[in-house]
Design goal:
It is a single chain. With about 290 residues, the chain is mostly helical. The protein has helices spanning about 1-25, 65-70, 85-95, 100-110, 155-160, 175-195, 200-215, 225-230, 250-265, 270-275, 290; strands at about 80, 120, 165, 175. Helix content is about 45%, strand content about 5%. Strands 1-2 form a two-stranded antiparallel ribbon. It has a two-stranded antiparallel ribbon with strand order 3-4. Strand 3 and strand 4 form a beta hairpin. Helix 1 runs antiparallel to helix 4 (about 100-110), helix 6 (about 175-195) crosses helix 9 and helix 6 (about 175-195) runs parallel beside helix 10.
Length: about 290
Amino acid sequence: MALVRKVAQGAALAVWDVGLTLMNLITPRRKVGKVTPAGHPGADGTWPEFIASKEGDSRCSCPALNALANHGLLPRDGKNISFKELGRIIHATYNFAPTFCYFVPNYAADMLKKKYATDTFDLAELDLHNGIEHDASLLRRDVHFEPNQSTIYVPFVKELLASATGKDTDGIPILTLSDISLISSKRRAEARAENPEFTLSKLHKTFGSTNASTLLMAFEGRVRDLEVFLLEERLPDGWESRITQSRGLTILTFNRTILKVEKGIDESKFAAATAHDPDANSSSKQKPAEEAS
C-alpha cells in the first residue's frame, strides 16, 4: 500500500510540474525588482538583518538554507523547522516552483524517517552522510576529513569562483555551465584519489549537479553575488533571485540544466594528474575555513 501511495504521489507531482512548466511558457516573467513576492521579507530589496550563526546553532552543508537562517527567514538557531514552512520560504526567497518546494522537503522527511505534515527538523540533521549530503562537494571537504559539514571550506569556494570564464555586459565574471562541469570533474577526481572512504553513487552525482546548478539558476553564476553567498552565507544587499518564471523554476525545467552539467563532467581529465602528482589535490589538505580566510 505504501508503494502504491508513493507511485501515485509521484505521478501527481509530475502532472502538477508539467502544468506549471506550461504555465511558465504562456505567462509573462516576473519583472526585475519584482521577483520576490510582495509582503515577503526582501521584496523591497532589503533582507532582514544578517546575523552569523553562533555556538549551539544548527547549520548544514547547504548555503541556501544556512542563509535563510542567518537572515531569520528560518529560525535563527536552525532548529525545529517545519518541513512545510521550509518549502514555503524556499519558494518565496529563491523562486523555485511549488513542485520543487514540495518534493525536496518531502524527500528530506522520508530520509529522516519523519512526517512531512507534522514533524520538524534541525538543519544539521540534513547532513546525514549519503542521504542528501555527499562526497566531492564544491564547497565542503568530504565528511572523512570534516565531520561538521556546515564548515565552509574557503579554498574550494575560492577555486570555484576563480574558475569563472564568463563575463556579463559590464565585464563582471560569471560562472558558466561549462565552468561548473569542469570544476566538478576536478573535485570528483581529487576526492576519489584522496578519500579512502570515497563514495559517489549515481543519485549523489545528480545531487551534486543539482546543487551546482542552483548557482547558475538562482544567481546566474554571478561571482560578485556568489562570493557573498558562499563565503558568508548571506543574501547580498539588494539581491533577488534570477529565476523570473511566473510559477518559479519547475523540476522539469531545472532538470535540463542539471543534466547538461552532469553530462559535461569528465573525471578522466584530472584522474591522471591526481594519480601521479601528490600535490594535485593539495587544496583539500589546507587549513580549515576559519583559518584559511
